[in-house]
Write a structure and sequence with these properties.
Elements (H helix, E strand, L loop, with lengths): L1 H32 E5 L2 E4 H8 L9 H20 L6 H27 L5 H10 L10 E9 L2 H12 L3 H8 L5 E11 L6 H8 L10 E4 L2 E11 L11 H27 L8
Antiparallel strand pairs: 1-2, 3-4, 3-6, 5-6
Helix pairs in contact: 4-9, 5-9
């Protein structure tokens, strides 16, 4: 009987030793993989990937996200050490912010439940009824751009484009193994255009003109066509600024829905305003 108990005790000791060893190895592995450490908090590459999923963090590179995490952690640690979270001032501020957070959540929920994505007819009608709101405050242009990794393919594309239109020529090259990227009839403001070299070329071109082949980096041969230029204070056609029209349509509908939501809340909670 005693021997059986000893053997059971030995087996139990070995079992727990294995568990502790595995846990220690896992902890050690995690320690080795972290990017930054503040006190007992670790930031790993997996954590950074999770942070990137939030829209507010999309524009940050890994190093910036790491610095933001470090700053947050040291502030959190310092606040805890000084009892900030228990202070009257913090509790008062937290209570005030609580209502603002609730407002954001409630309004977003109401918007998602009641906003109807507009079709082409709704957007065209909105554009026609609000044309004065689409007067541009700086000059712009509508262009198409295509990029190939092979120069001969780019030459063939340009030669065809000179005597044809973009849609027809693009349909013949859309499956090309040398096609790198393309933009079709997109509107840009001059001040917000992404490529200074192409912008200089566009400034020298006329409506409908096709550019020379632009080769500013290895294995990249671009062709640009200017479809139309717009002066400041002009109104671009609907089909060229459809994205902008939809954006402003959404803003207007958002304001209307929020106003509607508050009106319902006023009725629900028996709003009463006394006038003197």
């Amino acid at each position: 009987m005693m021997n059986s108990i000893r053997r059971l005790s030995q087996k139990t000791s070995v079992f727990f030793a294995i568990i502790f060893f595995c846990l220690a190895c896992e902890a050690e592995k995690k320690d080795k993989n972290y990017v930054a450490k503040v006190s007992d908090s670790l930031l790993t590459n997996e954590d950074i990937l999770e942070l990137k999923k939030f829209k507010k963090n999309e524009r940050f590179v890994d190093g910036e996200l790491t610095r933001k995490w470090i700053d947050s952690e040291v502030i959190d640690n310092e606040a805890k050490s000084k009892g900030i979270y228990q202070s009257k001032e913090f509790i008062k501020l937290a209570e005030e912010q609580k209502i603002k957070f609730a407002e954001v959540i409630l309004l977003n929920e109401y918007f998602e439940e009641n906003y109807e994505v507009p079709g082409n007819f709704e957007l065209q009608s909105f554009y026609d009824s609000n044309k004065e709101n689409f007067v541009i405050q700086q000059s712009g242009f509508v262009i198409s751009v295509i990029s190939f990794t092979d120069e001969q393919t780019a030459i063939k594309y340009r030669n065809l484009l000179v005597d044809s239109d973009w849609e027809k020529v693009f349909s013949k090259f859309s499956d090309s193994e040398f096609l790198k990227a393309s933009i079709e009839k997109k509107f840009y403001f001059v001040g917000g255009f992404y490529n200074y070299e192409i912008l200089k070329l566009i400034n020298q071109m006329e409506d409908g003109e096709v550019s020379i082949i632009i080769n500013s980096e290895p294995d990249d041969f671009k062709i640009v066509q200017v479809h139309k230029k717009y002066e400041r204070f002009s109104i671009p056609e609907f089909n060229f600024i459809k994205d902008l029209v939809e954006e402003r349509y959404k803003i207007k509908k958002t304001q209307e829905l929020y106003k509607e939501y508050f009106s319902k809340l006023y009725q629900k909670y028996n709003l009463e305003l006394k006038t003197e």
